[in-house]
Design brief:
heterodimer; A: mainly alpha; 13 helices; B: mainly alpha; 0% strand
Chain lengths: 308, 317
């Protein structure tokens, strides 16, 4: 809805961006800059990252005193207290301040969501690259295996893996990484295939570069854009997956204040304390919206040039 | 056309075998000896060895996998570690309940998502469009389990219109119990369908043939449905098909919130009890279910898009 309102300056600059000798990402940034929704997403993400940095710094400076005294220390006198001036978001079932818990939970939700996607990319990406680069039988074998992974519903596959390995944060990441790799291998494969027949690859081969060098040095940088777009677009849903699995008790374990894990308790106490369920969820929604806006903006900024 | 369907069907078999192998392999890593779990702590070494022999647990992996698939094809999914009951008996009723829930969710998502998307596209940049875009943005980003909790708090606890949880058999009761879980489950899909419909319609709206249709003096409603929607339908159908996997995943959480007696809740319970045969069976059944839905969507393409059908027909010659 914001795109319709574009200033004259923005139009001139975006038009120039394509003409001048700029790298893809410089051009993309100029496009991105004038996309107000995307910038809103970026702003929220920056705020969240500041919260993460702030909580980590506080822990370092105070030797986790704040964490121990306010985030995990139980105070049953305050059990399920509603929002007040002293505790703006109320207290949870053990009398812990919700605001502190949510702020400290930011890093878990954000980083775990990010790590899960990155892991999926690190497993699926190379497989997709190999499949796309070599084609033929290799491609067929790898992609049919990925089809099998795609056939199992994502969350169920992750649940099965967690069930086999046991519920813990590391196993959660492994589960999400393995279940998510198939879609990344597809995107990477498509990106590599669109680049591998270009002249510069041909010339690299003529110079005598081996396959590994060609893949890493020439193909990867040039197929990065769609992979990056996919990565950012998936962070939002990845945060939701981490929260969802933690919610049903298969992810982050208490007393770590991951947002999904906080909501586990909310279900039990929803009759007496609505505030436990409302606030962590709102933070989740805002975070995911921010990442989705950011990802959409990045896609809009990078995509037109891919077609060109 | 028949050959096309047949070919797609044949393609499903290796994928399904692969999926069962995948889940079977994952479950191999589950710690604990099944024989010990069944017999309990007081069992002697000899008893355990006997049961292992009886269950064929000492056979090589491949033998056990082939036996598992063979039994599955005969409808035998093994015995639950939790209550020694037949897993297939427990799963069939639950699978039906899950299908009811997922079906209702898809129905709601399509029924609301597509019209909203159409209106949004036709009235682009109006207040309606802006509101729809905002709402769907947030709906698509809302975790299912949180949305479920919110709906329960508002509609069950505060307003008391719908039951907070559970399922009753029979026509009106079942329907009333279904409302909240189905809406919860459909939320993400509904938002994605509305957004996809809008985007897809917008690509069509400014095509020349729409002007031609208007110039011919056709009714606006006819143009919208027969000329725009029909051509915009393929990405929408793709989206519906793609979201089905997520929908089944979401059903796990939704069923847990609303105590809906489906497979999803069964999986969570089984995982907590370390009941491997039940987990294995449920995940395999849901994978099969979702594979067949994808197959159905693929077949639907051929009906929606004549080009796909003709593409196949020319290849045959």
């Amino acid at each position: 809805m914001f795109q319709s309102v574009r200033t004259r300056k923005a139009e001139i600059e975006t038009a120039e961006a394509v003409n001048r000798d700029r790298t893809l990402f410089e051009q993309a940034w100029i496009q991105f800059k004038y996309n107000r929704r995307a910038m809103l997403g970026l702003a929220i993400i920056v705020v969240l990252l500041l919260i993460v940095a702030g909580t980590i710094l506080t822990d370092l400076v105070t030797h986790e005193e704040v964490y121990n005294n306010y985030v995990v220390k139980q105070n049953l006198y305050m059990k399920l207290k509603g929002p007040s001036l002293e505790h703006p978001l109320g207290c949870d079932e053990f009398g812990r301040d919700m605001l502190f818990r949510i702020l400290w939970g930011t890093k878990y939700s954000l980083l775990l969501g990010f790590c899960a996607v990155t892991l999926a990319l690190l497993i699926g990406g190379p497989l997709g690259m190999i499949a796309g680069f070599y084609g033929g039988k290799t491609d067929n074998v790898i992609m049919r295996i990925m089809d099998v992974f795609m056939a199992c519903p994502f969350i169920l596959l992750a649940m099965a893996i967690v069930a086999a390995l046991g519920a813990s944060t590391v196993n959660l990441l492994i589960a999400l990484g393995v279940s998510g790799m198939a879609s990344f291998s597809r995107v990477t494969r498509a990106a590599v295939m669109s680049v591998k027949d270009k002249e510069f690859v041909e010339s690299a081969r003529a110079v005598g570069a081996n396959d590994f060098v060609i893949l890493i040095k020439y193909i990867l940088p040039n197929s990065m854009a769609p992979i990056l777009v996919q990565l950012t677009l998936r962070i939002g849903s990845s945060i939701l997956h981490v929260a969802g699995l933690s919610y049903i008790g298969l992810g982050v374990q208490p007393p770590i204040p991951e947002w999904g894990a906080i909501l586990t308790a909310a279900k039990v106490y929803m009759r007496d304390a609505w505030h436990i369920s409302v606030f962590p969820g709102l933070f989740l929604v805002i975070t995911v919206v921010a990442f989705n806006l950011f990802g959409d903006g990045l896609r809009d900024a990078l995509d037109p040039k891919l077609k060109r | 056309m028949l050959r096309y369907i047949l070919k797609r069907f044949l393609f499903v078999i290796p994928v399904l075998l692969g999926a069962t192998l995948l889940v079977f392999t994952i479950m191999e890593f589950t710690p604990g000896d099944p024989a010990k779990i069944i017999l309990g702590n007081e069992a002697t070494e000899a008893d355990i060895a006997n049961l292992r022999e009886e269950m064929g647990l000492d056979d090589p992996f491949v033998v056990r996998y082939v036996r598992f698939v063979g039994n599955m094809l005969r409808g035998d999914l093994g015995i639950s570690y939790r209550n020694n009951l037949d897993v297939s008996d427990q799963i069939i009723q639950r699978l039906k309940n899950t299908m009811i829930l997922a079906g209702a969710a898809v129905f709601i998502a399509v029924l609301i998502g597509i019209p909203v998307g159409i209106i949004s596209a036709i009235k682009q940049y109006t207040i309606f469009d802006n509101v729809v875009m905002m709402v769907t943005l947030f709906l698509a980003a809302s975790p299912v389990f949180w949305l479920g909790l919110m709906l329960v708090i508002i509609f069950a606890l505060k307003l008391g219109i719908f039951p907070a949880a559970g399922m009753k058999p029979g026509f009106p009761d079942m329907f009333i119990c279904l409302v909240l879980p189905a809406f919860t489950l459909s939320s993400n899909t509904m938002a994605t369908i509305a957004r996809t419909t809008r985007a897809s319609m917008l690509e069509v709206v400014r095509q020349d043939y729409i002007d031609t249709a208007r110039a011919k003096g056709l009714k606006e409603s006819t143009i919208t449905v027969r000329h725009m929607l029909k051509n915009a339908l393929i990405p929408i159908v793709t989206m519906i098909g793609l979201s089905f996997g997520g929908l089944l995943g979401g059903s796990v959480v939704t069923e847990s919130i609303f105590a809906w007696p489906g497979v999803g809740r069964f999986v969570v319970e089984s995982i907590n009890f370390k009941d491997t045969p039940s987990v294995l069976a449920s995940v395999v059944m849901l994978s099969i279910f979702s594979t067949f839905v994808n197959l159905f969507v693929d077949l639907l393409y051929a009906f929606v898009d004549p080009r796909i059908k003709s593409q196949y027909q020319t290849k045959r010659r």
